[in-house]
Amino acid sequence: MSTPGDTRTVVRALATNYIQEALEILQRTTKKRLRFDELILSGRLSSTMGLANYRMVGNRYYYTITISSKIFKRDSIALKETCYHEVAHLADWQIYRKWGHGDTWCRLMRKLGLEPKVYIEPEEYVEAGYISVDERPIS
Q: Do residues 50 and 78 make contact, with C-beta atoms less than 8 angstroms apart?
């Protein structure tokens, strides 16, 4: 029987691997060096699967990806796609200085082998490890 700490450790390891994998793909296909600084697992995210963020620390940008530890309890296609989605946001900023789900982000998602989408479909909730009470889209 796994404990919550074990689950977080597993999700952290999986997410770290998916983030590194996505960074390697985009660095190879864009010929750009991309940076990533920190993975955060958050029990506060309940309607968002992940978030990418950047901020200035001193004279350089600091890049983070936050993954919901409420939604992800195990490995899933949705976990991998969420990590790739968030890496595409960081790459979009680092390469094009754009943020959001625009044309350059969509191109980066395709380079990662995924169709660009902002929300998962309701039938994907369970696969993601999340039971939706109010059927809100999860981004």
A: no
